[in-house]
Design goal:
Order of helices and strands: HHHHHHHHHH
CATH topology: Four Helix Bundle (Hemerythrin (Met), subunit A)
Number of domains: 1
Strand content: under 5%
Number of helices: 10
Number of strands: 0
Largest sheet: none
Distance between the termini: 43 Å
Oligomer: single chain
Structural class: mainly alpha
Radius of gyration: 18 Å
């Protein structure tokens, strides 16, 4: 089966429409505030970040797109990640739903413009860091597993020179910046919960790699921090 046939299936196309268009637009669809520039800014960053990162990653590692498209089909995925991975996907949706409801019913006051602009900058930075990690790491799967059939090895280049899990670091930064960007105090509740889930996932994945991936222990001794330099 060709790479194109593997990727372009009705299920994958449906998921792309959902992830690429519907989910980012949830705050706008729920609030019906079509002049909400911060929500439109998030939509643009989300779509451009997704498309550009996958295009660049696909040029370098075509098999990575297949790996990610079939991430729910892997039988050797860690049992705990079969719970955590869907929670992460659901958590990002909940943030957007709460922000949309907050805007529609006016639960939170509008944040000051400098705060919203700073939050937008953090969202963009989070997407850039996560995209850089995706492009650099051929084994950036959607589920935690040791990809022996793909020659899984340690990746220590690019953002992996700074922290061991830059993809999670970028995601946490983005999720925590979404509530102030969208002026939603209530959205910080799911954002904080999602950040906690990602921290737990980081710890479990790091322990798995230490135990099962050759060379990772030496890499961890060289790059000491998981998510944030000089902190953890």
């Amino acid at each position: 089966m060709s790479l194109r046939a593997t990727l372009v299936t009705p299920r994958v196309v449906g998921m792309l429409i959902l992830v690429l268009i519907v989910i980012p637009m949830l705050p706008l669809l729920i609030s019906r505030r079509w002049g909400w520039w911060e929500a439109w800014a998030y939509v643009i960053v989300s779509i451009v970040g997704f498309v550009l990162s996958r295009w660049l990653a696909g040029r370098r590692h075509p098999d990575l797109l297949t790996e990610r498209a079939r991430f729910m089909e892997h039988e050797d995925a860690k049992p705990w990640d079969r719970l955590l991975a869907p929670l992460v996907a659901l958590g990002s949706v909940v943030i957007l739903v709460v922000a949309g409801l907050d805007a529609r019913f006016g639960w939170s006051p509008s944040f000051d413009l400098p705060i919203r602009l700073a939050a937008l900058a953090v969202v963009i930075a989070g997407y850039v860091l996560g995209s850089y990690a995706l492009m650099e790491n051929r084994f950036f799967s959607g589920m935690v597993r040791i990809q022996r059939e793909r020659g899984h090895r340690v990746v220590s280049s690019g953002p992996y020179r700074w922290v061991r899990h830059p993809g999670y670091a970028g995601a946490i930064a983005t999720y925590l910046a979404m509530p102030p960007l969208l002026s939603s105090l209530w959205a910080w509740l799911p954002a904080a919960a999602l950040a906690g889930i990602l921290i737990v996932r980081t710890r479990l994945e790091d322990a798995t790699l230490r135990a099962e991936l050759e060379g990772y222990e030496a890499y961890a001794a060289q790059v000491r921090y998981r998510l944030l330099p000089r902190v953890w």
